[in-house]
């Protein structure tokens, strides 16, 4: 049997030199990474937000950074719905709190509730109205062409996770706090935000300045030895 002609052969995209690549000396690598690590190590998930406004262009730049993430077949299978309007934020809070009440009262297992207890979370989500921006991240299970045909997406969860990681890192670099909020289930986000059924809500990112009296749990992180193994044979 002859194989069908590949339509995605590598001569579809013209290639260009890797002109923007920069190499650093090992000393520069160390300095740059020391600085980066010290900065990202200060990142904390925040649950108490200020209502202080954040300029829209700051969010736009962070989103453009997120959109540089690698993705399966470069299909960029994500969508970010950026919410700043009080009416929509209120709808999202009401729907999220309704799900969370169910979660904390019935759906969560005892084991799950025990795992969450040290974080002190509950079904009240005032930050969904207080914070200046909510970014609903959607994973596109498949793409849709203007004529309605479907385009298969590859590794959409991995790709959207990578883009979200870059978004959080970019916002932290700007001095903004984030909360990765995952009300479950999150289907209500499709309805409120008018997103198609090809998109699955991935998480809801709360973005803003921390409240001046914000507190965070005194957590620790695993040591390098605990979370890595090195195979040198
Ligand atoms: N979605 C709930 C519960 C929750 C679950 C996990 I896993 C967390 O790390 C934190 C909370 C809530 O937002 O309260």
Q: Note poorly predicted spans.
A: 1-9
CATH top level? Alpha Beta
Give the helix proportion (percent range): 25-40%
What do we call the CATH topology?
Answer: NADH Oxidase
Average of the residue pLDDT scores: 94
Please give the CATH architecture: 3-Layer(aba) Sandwich
Number of helices: 8
The description of the largest β-sheet is:
4 strands, antiparallel
What share of the residues does DSSP label as strand, in percent? Answer: 15-25%
Ligands bound, unique? 3-iodo-tyrosine
CATH homology-level superfamily: NADH Oxidase
Main structural class: alpha+beta
**Secondary-structure element pattern, one letter each:** HHEHHHEEEHEHEH
Adjacency order of strands in the biggest sheet: 1-2-6-5
Number of domains: 1
Please give the radius of gyration in angstroms. 21 Å
**Coarse shape:** globular
Strand segment count:
6
3D structure, described in words:
This protein is an alpha+beta fold and 233 residues long. The chain has eight helices and six strands, in the order ααβαααβββαβαβα. Mean pLDDT is 94; it is low at 1-9. Bound molecules: 3-iodo-tyrosine. Residues 100, 103, 116, 119, 121, 181-184 line the site of 3-iodo-tyrosine (IYR).
